[in-house]
Specification:
single chain; alpha/beta; 5-stranded parallel β-sheet; 5 helices; globular
Length: 167
Amino acid sequence: MYFTIMDDDRAFDETLKNKLESEYHAVVDVYHGMIDLDQIKHVPDILFLDVIFENGTGVDYAKKYKEKFDSQIVFVSSKSSLIFKTQGLKALCFIRKSHLDNDFKVFKQLYDEECKNEMKLIFELNKGMNKNHINMVDEESKNELEIGRKYKKEVNEAFRNYLMDKF
């Protein structure tokens, strides 16, 4: 799991980075300002993006970012009123720097729910694929049927382990 923080407030960056690493055991890249899109080390699962920078706005950056990457964006700002500038960009949420602990809980709840829904979808797709696979097997392909059952068992076990670790 990768997260990227792009913000010019070093103290906030460090605090948020520690929270993300502690909660998600993730790789967190931190940039103290906006960088060229080609300089991003890892395409993150989520980009935490400040709304205001000395050399531009996070809103303009987010528009360019969304054209190139499919990651979620969480806007951060010390000015709560800037939430209105971010509307329409389909951000996961808005974190107010002065309310980091409370807003991080909201972020965590939203992100965890999104991850859970993705896992359900993957599980359902897998279940459907396994049914289709089993329906196509004829009498001469008993070996393939056994492989399909083993695969389904491994997928179910992996999904159970994921849920046990996550929730």
